[in-house]
Amino acid sequence: MSPGNQPKRFATLFVCALALVISGCRSETKPAGGSADSDATKRVAVIVSTLNNPWFVVLAESARDSAIELGYDAVIFDSQNDPSKETAHFDNVIASGYSAVLFNPTDADGSIANVRRAKEAGVPVFCMDREINATDAAVSQILSDNYSGCVAIGQHFVKEVGESGEYAELLGLVGDNNTRNRSDGFHSVVDRYPELKMVAQQSADFDRAKALEVMEAILQANPDIKAVFCGNDAMAMGAYQALLAAGKAEQVKIFGFDGADDVVAMIQEGKIVATGMQFPKLMAKTAAEYADQYLKGDRDLLQKVPVAVELVHQGNAEKFGDFDEEGSE
Fold this sequence. Notes:
This protein has nine helices and 13 strands. The chain has helices spanning 54-69, 83-96, 112-120, 146-161, 177-190, 208-221, 233-245, 261-268, 280-295; strands spanning 27-28, 43-48, 73-78, 100-103, 125-128, 140-144, 165-171, 196-203, 227-230, 253-255, 274-277, 304-307, 310-313. The longest helix is centred in the N-terminal third of the chain and has 16 residues, at 54-69. The strands form three sheets. Strands 1-3-2-4-5-6-12 form a seven-stranded mixed beta sheet, with helices on both faces. Helix content is 36%, strand content 19%. It is of the alpha/beta class.
């Protein structure tokens, strides 16, 4: 897909991406050199918020691989969910003469300054999955349609849980737009039912281990909850571990978001009710293509590209496996 010459309108995109594993920061290059000279292979930096989550590993590796396929050297940088590390990566990238950045921010507001510094230095930035709250900094932002995806989850939640009862919500990172958009989409549906009562809403930072701890505390204070909505699949897995240890895994319905392979498998087994399937490989590939087109002189690029999310539940989970570029069957 080459979206650079489309009219300025939103496009809805579907794909699944192959889950891989990466640790640390490493590069894979073509035989050409990696200097900033015009006769050498240009370098693209892939700066991601974390590699401590398989979903972001897919995003990072897909961005790197797509850039390499387009003829660039590519290096992955892990910010470890730390804005100061992200800033250090941008310092390195700007000083080292990278040609572009494929970027997954740590914070919607806090990351703006880094993107603007890169822009001022002549290094275009293309956001993937997470957006920044500025329209004049990144060239383009390729983002999952989190709100609509969680509207669908909210509808399925009411269908499976019913129109009454207590439930809990595990939020992602505070300050992250995905956290807010997912929660807002979910509540746009469930808040229409006054007998569905949210008795706990706590952040677990999109982290599996933190979700386990938070869920344990929620269960102690609210032993009668019927369901839990988790803002990503890592937290859904942590919540499941806590519920299993408490002997409540069969009583409390779990809903996630991401489309992680292990969660899709657990949906098929009836252990988790539903998730929202994101397509990180498509977002990464599109970001790399946009960067390539921009570096070749194209300035007619969409500023924001929403990527559709698909609801995965027990009735259709068998259609979803590894991420690929063609979407579900």
